[in-house]
Automatic annotation (TrEMBL):
Binding residues annotated for glyoxylate, in chain numbering: R239
Name of protein: L-lactate oxidase
Pfam families documented for this protein: FMN_dh
GO function term, MF aspect, one: FMN binding
Source species: Mordavella massiliensis
Residues at the active site: H236
Lineage: Bacteria, Bacillati, Bacillota, Clostridia, Eubacteriales
Length: 337
């Protein structure tokens, strides 16, 4: 199955909000929420994509002609590529009736593991979502990263018990989900966390902990102080705060501030292997990609995930070779301009 066939199949079942566009750039869905759009004016998702397109890469083929190694190590695990599927939830609400969250995570986690990468899984008010996600990760030998909303500490501890049973090699929290409407007015309260509260969360996790939703140097330093093993530079695809900057714009300063101390992921509008190379050159260790993996699952289930991963990894390897870098460790700021 080709990626083009995946897109064509997705268009038959993914509506009505998502259009499975040839390039997922945020324009067709704009501010459609429910749907995959961004909050308010709907411009942040568009700006995320556009920011990567404004960055150019420097070609250099006067170098040794040898194979490219795209392998990536994280917390004792080796992956074929520095690519992870981002956490997505409320599938029927935003993407159509074909899959619920449990079905989506089940397909995504195993397919990503088979493709040599890993999926971050979503969370929700329904406890079955986290239960299903961690079961899928357990079935995949722990090759997945359960991503938990910023609930109260007692709820978090219950969910961390599921994480432990799954054998997951890491856990994450999308701290920026504090801006999602369904988290407001919860009892007990869910939302923003202080550094001291996060220290307790990190301790309770029991595995390397990733904080997703970091958009400033100040936030990255607080995540480091709390004990996070990694951060994700992310504005939640523009879905939690209108008028915030694109991730490509803030990544370099965050990487310069904390890149030697913790792992750095980035997401938001990354749509090709060339974009991935740009992100790595600007200081990221790996990338998360969200919406396109949804399209891949809806358009081809496990085969769709494989097709998308092959597309992205092939583009990354080709771009690396044409820039004269043959391993991830060789990628520096000199690759981009």
């Amino acid at each position: 199955m080709t990626y083009q066939e995946v897109l064509e199949n997705a268009r038959t079942c993914i509506g009505p909000f998502c259009k499975a566009c040839p390039v997922c750039n945020g324009k067709a869905c704009s501010n459609k929420v429910p749907g995959p759009g961004a909050k308010g004016t709907g411009t942040v998702a568009i700006q995320n994509y556009d920011a990567w397109q404004k960055i150019c890469i420097n070609m250099d083929t006067i170098c040794e002609n040898k194979p490219v190694d795209t392998s990536f190590e994280l917390f004792g695990q080796t992956f074929r590529y520095p690519i992870f599927a981002g956490p997505v939830g409320a599938m029927k609400l935003h993407y159509g009736d074909k899959y619920d969250d449990l079905e989506y995570n089940s397909i995504l986690v195993s397919a990503c593991a088979d493709a040599g990468i890993a999926a971050f899984t979503g969370d929700g008010t329904n406890p079955a979502v986290m239960e299903g996600a961690t079961q899928a990760i357990k079935a995949a030998g722990g090759k997945g990263i359960p991503t938990i909303k910023p609930w109260d500490i007692n709820t978090l501890k219950e969910k961390f018990a599921l994480v432990k049973d799954s054998g997951a090699f890491a856990a994450a929290m999308d701290i920026d989900a504090a801006g999602l409407p369904f988290l407001k007015n919860q009892t007990p309260p869910a939302g923003s966390k202080s550094v001291e509260e996060l220290k307790e969360v990190v301790q309770a996790a029991g595995v390397p902990f990733i904080l997703k939703g970091i958009m400033t140097v100040k936030g990255a330093l607080k995540a480091k102080e709390a004990g996070a093993a990694a951060i994700v530079v992310s504005n939640h695809g523009g879905r939690v705060l209108d008028q915030c900057p694109p991730t490509a714009e803030v990544l370099p300063e965050i990487a310069e501030a904390v890149g030697k101390d913790i792992k750095i992921f980035v997401d938001g509008g990354i749509r090709s292997g060339v974009d991935i190379l740009k992100a790595l050159a600007l200081g990221a260790d790996a990338v998360l990609i969200g919406r396109p993996f949804v399209t891949a699952v809806y358009g081809g289930a496990a085969e769709g995930v494989s097709a998308l991963t092959e597309k992205l990894s092939g583009e990354l390897a080709d771009a690396m070779a044409m820039c004269g870098v043959h391993s991830l460790s060789e990628i520096t700021r000199e690759v981009v301009r």
